[in-house]
Every structure is written in structure tokens, then in C-alpha cells.
Design a protein that fits this description.
By secondary structure, the protein is mostly helical. It has helices at residues 6-22, 39-50, 54-67, 75-83, 89-97, 102-114, 137-148; strands spanning 122-125, 129-132. Strands 1-2 form a two-stranded antiparallel sheet. The longest helix has 17 residues, at 6-22. The radius of gyration is 17 Å and the shape is globular. The termini are far apart.
Length: 149
């Protein structure tokens, strides 16, 4: 529904699959059955940042979704991922069942929408320059240098 022109989505998937393969990533878009609500996954990412495991959790969420087609909006999936990366299962169950950090994550989403971010990845360099979508490293480096200047 998000992409009414099926060729656009197919081309995007083919491009990402090719880029991923050249960087050791295996996208399996056929395994993805639905686009999950990621609010709780973003909450988990925030909690992971508090214990220095944000990169690990983000990588595990991406692998679960893009390589395995798992529903990263499902609490059982999030609890399994969190538990495998040092979180106490009971703590994550309790936090996900409650409202911990929902407002701060929603505020981040609203801020992103307010400044025009509509997809990922999205990079903001030095609050001066933005780049949307998967960009080659040389273009990102050029943007960083431009923002520094």
C-alpha cells in the first residue's frame, strides 16, 4: 500500500539486495510477510543505548527482519533478541508490557516527521546537511566534509 507502483518496490529491493550482497548482507524480502509496528523495537534500541549495546541490538533487529522475515513488532521476538544480548528477560517483559519511554520515542518520530524525514536511512551532518537513502561511502564522506566546512 505504501508503494502503489509495484515496479518501484521491486527495483528498490533489487538495488538493496545487490548492495547488501556486495557488503556481506543477505536481504530476503520474500520472507517478510508484513511491515510491523516498530515502536517497541525503537524502545528496545533506546534501552540498549543505556547499556552500551545499541549497535548490537540494531544489528540483531535488522537481521531478524531483513534476513529472516521475523516480526520485530512482536514482543516475543523482541524479548528473544534482548535476552540474547544481555538483557534480563523479566526486565524486558515488564518494560514492553508498560509504557516506559513510549513518549520519548514518539517525540523522536514526530521530530523526524516535522523536519521531513520520511524513510531510512537518513543522515544529518552537523545539523547543516542531510542525505536520504543508502549512499555510497564516498558521497557520505563528501557530505561530512561539506558539513564541517
Amino acid at each position: 500500500k505504501k508503494f502503489p507502483d509495484p515496479s518501484y518496490l521491486q527495483n528498490a529491493h533489487e538495488r538493496l539486495t545487490s548492495l547488501g550482497a556486495s557488503n556481506g548482507l543477505k536481504f530476503d524480502f520474500e520472507a517478510i510477510e508484513k511491515s510491523p509496528n516498530t515502536l517497541d523495537a525503537h524502545r528496545l534500541i533506546q534501552w540498549a543505548g543505556e547499556i552500551g549495546k545499541q549497535d548490537e541490538i540494531v544489528n540483531a533487529l535488522f537481521k531478524a527482519y531483513f534476513e529472516e522475515g521475523r516480526d520485530i513488532g512482536d514482543h516475543a521476538v523482541l524479548i528473544e533478541i534482548a535476552s540474547a544480548h544481555g538483557f534480563e528477560k523479566s526486565d524486558i517483559e515488564r518494560k514492553l508490557a508498560g509504557d516506559d519511554d513510549i513518549n520519548s520515542v514518539r517525540a523522536e518520530i514526530e521530530e523526524a516527521q516535522r523536519i521531513g524525514i520520511s524513510g531510512v536511512p537518513f543522515f544529518i551532518f552537523n545539523r547543516k546537511l542531510a542525505a536520504s537513502g543508502a549512499q555510497p561511502p564516498d558521497q557520505l564522506l563528501a557530505a561530512i566534509k561539506q558539513a564541517q566546512a
